[in-house]
Predict the 3D structure of the following.
Amino acid sequence: MPRLTVNGKQIEVPAGTNLIEAARHAGVEVPHYCYHPSLSIAGQCRLCMVDIEKAPRPTIACNTVAADGMVVLTETDRVRETRKSIMEFHLINHPLDCPVCDQAGECWLQIYYMQHGLYDPRMTDEKVHKPKAVPLGPHVILDAERCILCSRCVRFCDEITGTGELGIFERGDHSEIGLFPGTELDNKYSGNVVDICPVGALTDRDFRFQVRVWYLETAKSVCAGCARGCNIEVHVNRRRPHHAEGRRVARLKPRVNADVNQWWICDAGRYGFGFVDDNDRLLAPTRREGGTSSDATWDEAIGAVAAALRRLSPDEVGVIASPRMANEDLFALRRLLDICAVRRVGAQVPPRVPGDEDHILIRADKNPNSLGAELMGLGGDARPVLDAARARQLKCLWIFGHDLMASRWPEAEVLEALRAVETIVFTGTNANRTSERAHWVLPAAAWVERDGTYTNFEGRVQRFRQAVEPLGQALAEWEMLDRVLAALGEAPSATRAEHWFRRLATVVPAFAGLSYQALGDTGRLVAGSVAARAPR
Amino acid sequence: MTGEMILTRNFARSDAHTLRAYLETGGYRAWAKAQAMEPTAILEEVKRSNLRGLGGAGFPTGTKWSFIPKSHAGPVYLVINADEGEPGTFKDRYLLERDPHALIEGMLIAARAIRSATAFVYVRGEYVEPWRRFSSAVQEAYAAQYLGHGFDIVVHRGAGAYICGEETGLISSLEGKKGWPKLKPPFPAIKGAFGAPTIVNNVETICHVPHIVNRGAAWFAALGTKTQGGTRMYSVSGRVARPGVYEAPVSITLRQLIYERAGGVTGNGRLKAVVPGGSSAAILTADEIDVTMDVDGLKNAGTMAGSAGVIVMDETVSIPEALMVVARFYAHESCGQCTPCRESTGWIYKITHRIVEGRGRKEDLDTILDVAKRGAGTTICAFYDGAVGPYISYIEKFRGEFEAMVLK
Amino acid sequence: MSEGDGYPGLTDPATTVFSEAQLAEVRRLQSLYPDPRGALLPVLYMAQETFGWISLPLEEYVATLFGLSPAHVHEVVTFYTLYFREPPGRHVVSVCHNLSCHLAGAPGIIAHLRQRLGVDPGETSEDGRVTLLSVECLCACEAAPMMQVDDRYELNLTPTKVDRILEGLA
């Protein structure tokens, strides 16, 4: 553990730490472009120059390993002058088209120019011209003139995905990043190159020109696209609602969690939020009678569900819960089922197409909370519930989220089941072919519209936070379950998801000792999880 | 001051490149002697000889060899830099074509000193004839059993990129990549070609080694100056009566080289400027040529010995035009890897081009000087510092000529 | 193309791959290096000598021989000046324009060649005979101005000598 000083502050860092990371330990930010903690050291941008005592001139921090007794200075006059010069070099051939650049506001050329540049431009000659607005693939578009050739995107495709689509071609100031002609950047993680591009060279085709980034608000969240639970930020456009046709969720961005997703998310997760602002969102409780649907109030809907539960014997009620529900929802449901003694319950419905999986992040299980459902005792196969319905044993079937019609179950059998049940209740965010057949539809808030937690496949319990208001009258599942419980005579207990979490932590052993505070931003492992026993 | 011809002694023989001719003139005797020497003894001998790298950097050769980790168990590679490309330099072409066995013998000895079993000779792609000549010599050496018994030579052709003359750019290229120089540390002696400890030496440097072994370090050291032993091959071109390769002790002065060896200045006969060590060396004015042509002599004169490519300019030569030609070269050859070099070599070429075209502005000169000085020392490799040599020296030493152009 | 007689540029190298003998040579070259990738430059030369130039499909083919992504082969091909990315003429004439040759009159030699061939540097004469290039130092400064014609260095050029050389090119 070398001890060194950075700007006079003494620190101790693990052996092998470079000076950018060492400076971070000391609370000092060394400006840089090409360095990325998860990629190989390129040393190309030359911006991370620092002074090391006794060295003849500034040296790059990214390729210098902290050594015992090193005295590092990041703000000497000559370091500042060098940074300023490097900034000028970076911008010589840059088009300086910030007003029409989608990166504006989160561009590290802008930021560092203001912090470290502030020189008077003196480049008056014709700049080098390169390809502009080139779609690289389904998600990413390139402006080669804005590129500072930091090679982060190239290294990402070489070192993280191993797909090698990108290269730096030609040489000198005609060097440009690009694809082998005729190919696409279409790997499962392609959107990450936009995140790691420090400038406006690689932008997101989905997000581009939707809204200026300074109008965005941010909430820390967790991707709901698979059992990995990648940490994300949800970027929401509330302040310019007239942009993007009222689309509130502007984009999802990965949030660093060394134990879960490092710096990355997959494209499926990144672009999988379209349903949130889709036209088929369920906005109000509805009742369907004799083929016609009509809006109902929540009181009517809750009343109807409660009445059914009261009226029917437990064996006449079936519930297909969902591993897409949050821990809080599942625990509230668990409570309701216990009170009503309902035992016909399952959560796993086989997908029509088996999920893809890889060795990076993507899990075949596309549900964010399968393990949570299991720990809550709700994770079982839902097939017996379907079969009970087909056997006309059920009078009420409550389906959470699933589109049974789109599952691997034969459609005829699903139809048979749905026709055989007197009262079908559907809770979900969007209409589907199952909700169309429900007698009561209870609109649920999407995960970005509420608080909650998921337990990922390794047993990591992670919080997701509300980023936008629920659309229409949608409620989080725990809220509607709370109301049903109240209608059944339970004292109303929760006004926030956290309240349910507190209760589940006292009841479900795996969650013992966990709280929202303890989960923090990066989550905690449940007791007894494989990951908890074998730290990586 | 002519002195003894060592490296060039056989150049006059039309069959100098053959094994027979090499053996007739004492070839491979040093290798026989070296085989009886401990590797460390060879290394020490080379250290004491004050042999310095003749490719450009002038680093002490024996010291470089000593950087190979003693405890290293895996392969060690010897790489010969025959990627001659420094403008004004052509000596290695002569050695490859006219005395290839000297290089092979030197490699055998050097490989023994650094315990290398495999060597790569990186010949610039344009050198087709030198490559053929050298490859034939390698085949002869295999047939004669000098090679193939614990030491192999792979001849590798470059494909057109000046930067591959930079030792780590060369290594990248040898590895089948773009010739992007590598970050240092690690240095090649620790982690070089294919991740193994590697010594990269210039052709001429290694050609000296058999003579050092044959005749001793003291003899070699005495040929030169206090800090650099031996002779070296000066490539003299430009406005001189007899352009060509001249071997001379490194203590020769630039004046002697121009007037006594190369026959004096042509054009209008009056010397204006000299580039003493390839285009990356700072230019010298006519009154700066009483300088010894060793590494330290030229360093003290504010320039560098570099590859010993001497380009002579008489008074009729336009220095701004010369700078434009040189700036075009650096802009074309910048590998593009790191920002200061990639961006400013192109910019500076544009400015010099504009000046020569008569569209220069007064502030251009200070802009070039400032940009060059700010970029110097900030890059991955020495290429940009090499470009800065001419940028700054041409303008600072001939500012009046530039000003006359920009103020027109 | 580097041979004196030249190779025709193929219009569709996609259908053309190395022969068994050439594949054996590829494997031999790859075995010379601790990492087979070291043979990429030599194998690209082989490809160019066989097909006259290095087309994109050929880059892709070579990539498969090395298990590389085509982008990485493209990086290499675009980095070096001696790989032709379009079919060159039957002969390639590369005139040095660096300092020593410049001082010795290279601009005049280039102007002469432009006029004789009717092309600018980087272009190929209409009859497909000669590709003219203006290149950086070829390190034969003692014989400036000079140029490379295919494999040969042609030294101490004058317009008359250039004419004679051009006449010798079929």
Observations:
- The interface with chain C takes residues 163-171, 178-183 of chain A (CB under 8 Å).
- The longest helix of chain A spans residues 77-91.
